[in-house]
Amino acid sequence: MKLIAVLMLALVLNGCVLTKVVTVPLRVGGAVVSVVPVVGNAADAVIDTTADAIDLVPL
Question: Whole-model pTM?
Fold first, then answer.
């Protein structure tokens, strides 16, 4: 039973879903930070670039 659960979890958490689980909170955090005057847009750009790099990881 545990083996089937692990296999199903591995199937669900394939590359696309796994990277989205990581990058969506990054992108939301970047959107929140972008409202800070002066440094917000620069911080958002860095966070967005990092999220894009994580999306390119071949999982």
Answer: 0.60
pLDDT at 27: 84
Q: pLDDT per residue over 26-36, tens digit each?
A: 888 888 888 88
Specify whether the backbone of 38 is left (phi greater than 0), alpha (psi in -120 to 50) or beta: left
DSSP-H helix ranges across the chain: 2-12, 15-33, 40-55
36: left (phi over 0), alpha (psi -120 to 50) or beta: beta
Count of all residues that appear for the chain in the document: 59
CA–chain centroid gap for 45, Å, is: 14
Amino acid, single-letter form, for residue 30: G
